[in-house]
Amino acid sequence: MATSLGIHELTQRLTAAAYGIWRKRWWMLVTAWIICLLGWAIVLAMPYKYQSYARIFVDAETLLPSIARNLGIDVDVTRQVDVVRRTLVTRNNLEKIIQRILSLEKLATTEVEKDELIAYLRQNIRVSSLEGGLFRIQFEIDEPRLNDRERADVARLVVVNLVSYFLERNSEEGLLQTASAEGFIAERVEEYQKRLEESERRHAAFKQDNLEFLGGQGSFLSRLEDSKNNLKLTLNAISELNATIDALDEQRSSVPPTLREPISARNGGNSAARDPLEERIAELEKRYDDYKSIGYTDRHPDVVNVTRQISTLKEQYEEQRRAVEEELKNTAETGAKSNLTIEVPNKLYESLSLELITKKTEIAALEKRRDDQSELIAQMEEKAKRVPEIEAEEQRLSRDYNSIRQQYNEFVNQQQDLEIRRGVENSGDAVALNVVEEPTRPSRPSGPPRLLYMVGSLLGGIVAGIGVAFMMSQLRPVIITVEQLRAQFDLPVLGNVTKTLSDEENRKRSIELVFFVGTSLLLFGTFAALLAFDFLGGPSLG
Fold first, then answer.
1. Where is 298: in which H helix or E strand?
2. Most buried in the list 36, 239, 290, 532, measured by CB within 10 Å?
3. Contact 476, 8 (CB under 8 A)
């Protein structure tokens, strides 16, 4: 129910709006005529545009670029073509074109007119790249100061000059750009060569001044660590020697420095100074052996005599030995001197003392080494404070040197590549340019789209007329239904009375309707006539 009421209300409003527009129909018709006539006049006053174009084929797949690419050099022979394409519309080129075309030259009599004409040419010249290596050069002109034939001729001549310039400048541009690039690269190579040499000198001087920190085996900090390890080894050796010395001292303290020996044995048992009894016994035993060797028996008088003497001497020697031992015992207890013994140095004591002297000599050398190593470590630790700064500076110099060398090598490689690229790009066989479609003189205009503009003017006039009529109806609105009356006034509506027109009023309304329809048809007829005139009466230069 609510939807039906909404549609009814919308219908009422649309009906009221349509009635209001119909009441102001003459406003609508006049506005439509004015807008349409103005639009059509503007469209008809537009000068015809004439367009001419040419297409050029650029063949870059020739033999020389292929050879260069096989050598690992990227040669872009179309680069110079692209540069020429983008520089066709420079002021210098356009001024030359104006001077070559009489119709354009007469339009540029002053500097201001020349500037305006150059801007106009630049705006209407199109150089576009198509697929398959094709380039399209296009120019469109609608200069109102020239007639149709002149505009058609100018369109073709401008494209002809642009094509000619494109073909000529293509070879010249490669030479100019390559020469400019070679000069730039040569300057950079020379500049970076000087910078590289200067960086090498700075780096070598820095290494020479800080050879202690940078030269030798390993880094400075590793050498400092080695020195500390050597000091630890020295201290360990000193500690071991001290322990050895303490042990030797303890051993020597338990050993007497001297020993008491029989006087006969004071020389340590030397056969040249033995006891006389021992010598006599040894001599008799030798004689006994001689007797036995010659065959004497034990009953032989000489053998018996020698045997008896040996027994007597051994008894005397044994008695003498017991007496010495007794005397040694007594002298050790009483400390008295003896006539049968003598005090001699203890060789074990002397050996331990000599060993102690050797160890103390070694420990003195190690302590000197320890002091030297400690002093060296102290000096190195003081110098180690500069190591981070020196290493950072060395890394910076190395980084600068490597960066400069890399840039220098890149410029040298570019210089070599450029020499080969110049030979390829500047060769007449590097790229082939062929005009596949010559510029022609247009026989019919290419624009503007007058049909579209005139239809737009007609529709714009109708819409504008409806809009004016609607606005005028809203300025002085009228009530045409009972519902509008109830909505406008808060009063009861008892009923409505239909107005009856007289014959005179009906006749006037019929005449007005016929006149309105006729005028409207005349508007459409005018539109059709103008279209026919434009289509049939347009210029044809064929």
1. none
2. 36
3. no
